[in-house]
């Protein structure tokens, strides 16, 4: 297996608090190839801007509370919420996901200052996720695409422009988020 780029390795100890259960996260080496190379493609579900990002990982906009049980039925094990506190999402989203049998992780992501730290936190959450597919969501899928592009850029050593393109293919449409990817990966 490949090891993480040095920039990402330095940040792993700093991001444990980004997950809802930091004590259970074990930063191992990145999986080869796609984020969850041992996983099948996620099942399609009816969510706003749903997109398969890679084996075992999908992205979307905000799921409705009734969608959590459907995600579990479709083989999802984990939900990662990129929305910040105060955004319009169910206050009890974590409890509803848990009631459906899903692991829930909160990774609040702002447009203005997201970067390598969030990509490192995503890596840790993906590594710790139990067997089954992972759904990453925000309000519309825009931040999902940006974070996925940053994650792939770091994991695969992509150029900033290639990471931006990966983010756009994954649903990012914000020029501000594209600029954050460029700035973070050039740094």
Report on the architecture of this protein:
It is a single chain. The protein has 187 residues and is of the alpha/beta class. It has one domain: Protein tyrosine phosphatase superfamily (Protein-Tyrosine Phosphatase, Chain A), CATH 3.90.190.10. The chain has seven helices and five strands; from the N terminus they run αββαβαβαβααα. The protein has helices at residues 6-11, 67-73, 93-99, 116-128, 142-156, 160-169, 175-186; strands spanning 51-54, 57-60, 76-81, 103-106, 133-137. A five-stranded mixed sheet has the order 1-2-5-3-4, with helices on both faces. A hairpin with a 2-residue loop joins strand 1 (51-54) and strand 2 (57-60). The protein is globular, with a radius of gyration of 15 Å.
Task: Explain briefly what this protein structure is.
The protein has 187 residues and is of the alpha/beta class. The protein has seven helices and five strands, in the order H-E-E-H-E-H-E-H-E-H-H-H.
């Amino acid at each position: 297996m490949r090891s993480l780029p040095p920039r990402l390795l330095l940040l792993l100890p700093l991001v444990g608090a980004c997950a809802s259960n930091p004590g259970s996260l074990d930063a191992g080496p990145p999986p080869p190839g796609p984020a969850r190379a041992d996983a099948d493609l996620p099942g399609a579900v009816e969510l706003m801007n749903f997109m398969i990002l890679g084996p075992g990982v999908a992205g979307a906009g905000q799921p409705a509370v009734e969608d959590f049980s459907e995600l579990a039925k479709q083989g999802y094990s984990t939900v990662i919420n990129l929305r910040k506190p105060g955004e319009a999402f169910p206050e009890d989203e974590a409890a509803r996901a848990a009631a459906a049998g899903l692991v829930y992780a909160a990774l609040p992501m702002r447009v203005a200052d997201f970067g390598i730290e969030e990509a490192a936190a995503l890596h840790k959450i993906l590594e710790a996720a139990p067997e089954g597919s992972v759904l990453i969501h925000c309000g519309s899928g825009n931040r999902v695409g940006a974070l996925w592009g940053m994650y792939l850029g770091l994991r695969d050593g992509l150029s900033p422009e290639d990471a931006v393109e990966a983010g756009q293919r994954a649903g990012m449409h914000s020029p501000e988020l594209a600029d954050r990817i460029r700035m973070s990966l050039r740094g």
